[in-house]
């Protein structure tokens, strides 16, 4: 009878040694703590339920209760905090996100699943949709920044300015990292692109060109584009007879949007590098500028005048969204400088537009600044292997190495070139 009781006791304790760790893990303990506590309790019960000789019965009982006491202490020290943490709702993350990335971060279900797996939570109430320039204006104001975990902003100069503002206000920046690569491209009316191509102002891509795999149909020398916009040229000179206004370009407002700031910086940098003694008989090309010099911190009068003239002749959208497409459809100007991700979407939705690659461009690095542990955990999600695959569906899949990338300018130089004022 005693042998049968011992056998049953061993079976029950073996089952407990397997079941207890699983149950404790489901409650929220990590596997190390769950296994340690479960095995200790199983051994203690095995000792207490075993029939031993009276000579060692008291000693074994003492050992059994000691093991139960040890398991209880482990449960209090390690188990209870882990279970309490597991039962708490995911950490709600607060921050600002540029308009183009808001849908991806806040409303994409696959991204929400990644965020949930990291024990974080994002809602439309915790994350505010705000353009990069508006972010800087908000951060530099008297607004409360205590609870901000992150900002997902624009290019590196904007992020550097944001970092400077936040640190001046006592908020330490833990990380400032590039996330998604998004170059500036030209979106152009298809009929106009065909006409300009016949005049060799654009080059139609030949079959097999790698840029075609990314949706491009033409490429253009950015220096020629800038010289055309800033020189004494007309639309007729490049075969576009239907346009009568002075040459300009559609772009977002540089005082409100990082996309507009980058567009003006791109053209302003080339204006600055164009040789003053160039011939008026032809448009300049990239070969005329062997090396691009960075913008001066303070623009001279001639460059400022050229930028002002460009703005007078150009069309401005409030932001780099569908409003650019609306202005293109109005037909007053045949092209727009915008991000690849947005240009690809416009061209994909409307066959009357074509995507044109620039020989020289700027890349929006979509910088992410984290100010807390939660912000850093969110950054790690953006840097994970799964996130880029999701982001591809939003147009963040630009080709690499297909163009010359102008170096990032200092924020001070960009600010002076564009007339950006963060005080209003």
Helicity, as a percent range: 40-55%
Low-confidence stretches: none
Instruction: Report the sheet with the most strands, covering strand number, pairing sense and barrel closure.
Output: 6 strands, mixed
For this structure, what is the CATH homologous superfamily of the largest domain?
Periplasmic binding protein-like II
CATH architectural arrangement of the largest domain? 3-Layer(aba) Sandwich
Average residue-wise pLDDT: 84
Key features?
single chain; 424 residues; alpha/beta; D-Maltodextrin-Binding Protein, domain 2; 6-stranded mixed beta sheet; 5-stranded mixed beta sheet; 16 helices; 17 strands; 13% strand; transmembrane helix
Can you give a write-up of this model?
The protein has helices spanning 2-27, 31-49, 54-87, 99-107, 109-117, 132-140, 156-168, 190-198, 222-230, 258-273, 301-313, 322-330, 340-349, 373-382, 386-391, 411-418, and strands spanning 91-92, 95-97, 120-121, 127-129, 150-152, 175-177, 182-189, 203-204, 216-220, 250-252, 315-317, 335-339, 353-358, 360-361, 363-364, 368-370, 404-405. The protein is an alpha/beta fold and 424 residues long. The strands form five sheets. Strands 7, 8, 9, 12, 13 and 15 form a six-stranded mixed sheet that branches. It has a five-stranded mixed sheet with strand order 4-2-5-16-6, sandwiched between helices. The protein is elongated.
């Amino acid at each position: 009878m005693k042998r049968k009781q011992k056998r049953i006791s061993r079976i029950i304790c073996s089952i407990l040694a397997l079941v207890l760790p699983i149950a404790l893990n489901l409650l929220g303990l990590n596997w190390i703590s769950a296994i340690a506590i479960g095995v200790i309790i199983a051994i203690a019960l095995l000792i207490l339920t075993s029939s031993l000789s009276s000579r060692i019965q008291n000693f074994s009982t003492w050992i059994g209760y000691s093991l139960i006491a040890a398991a209880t202490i482990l449960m209090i020290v390690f188990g209870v905090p882990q279970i309490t943490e597991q039962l708490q709702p995911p950490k709600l993350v607060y921050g600002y996100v540029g308009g183009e990335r808001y849908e991806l971060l806040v409303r994409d279900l696959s991204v929400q699943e990644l965020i949930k797996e990291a024990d974080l939570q994002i809602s439309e109430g915790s994350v505010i949709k705000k353009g990069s320039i508006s972010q800087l204006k908000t951060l530099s104001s008297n607004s409360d920044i205590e609870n901000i975990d992150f900002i997902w902003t624009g290019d590196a100069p904007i992020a550097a300015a944001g970092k400077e503002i936040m640190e001046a206000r006592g908020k330490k920046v833990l990380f400032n990292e590039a996330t998604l690569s998004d170059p500036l491209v030209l979106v152009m009316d298809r009929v106009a692109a065909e006409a300009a191509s016949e005049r060799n102002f654009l080059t139609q891509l030949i079959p097999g060109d790698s840029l075609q795999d990314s949706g491009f149909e033409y490429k253009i020398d950015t220096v020629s584009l800038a010289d055309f916009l800033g020189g004494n040229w007309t639309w007729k000179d490049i075969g576009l007879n239907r346009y009568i206004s002075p040459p300009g370009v559609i772009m977002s407002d540089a005082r409100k949007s990082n996309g507009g700031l980058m567009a003006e910086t791109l053209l302003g940098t080339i204006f600055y590098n164009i040789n003053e003694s160039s011939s008026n008989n032809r448009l300049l090309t990239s070969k005329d500028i062997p090396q691009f010099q960075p913008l001066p911190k303070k623009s001279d009068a001639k460059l400022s005048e050229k930028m002002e003239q460009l703005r007078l002749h150009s069309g401005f959208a409030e932001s780099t969204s569908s409003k650019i497409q609306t202005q293109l459809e109005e037909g007053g100007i045949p092209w727009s400088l915008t991000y690849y991700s947005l240009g690809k979407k416009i061209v994909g939705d409307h066959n009357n537009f074509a995507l044109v690659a620039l020989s020289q461009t700027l890349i929006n690095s979509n910088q992410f600044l984290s100010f807390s542990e939660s912000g850093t955990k969110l950054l790690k999600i953006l840097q994970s292997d799964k996130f880029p695959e999701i982001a591809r569906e939003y147009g963040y899949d630009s080709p690499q190495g297909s163009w010359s990338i102008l170096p990032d300018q200092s924020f001070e130089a960009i600010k002076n070139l564009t007339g950006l004022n963060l005080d209003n």
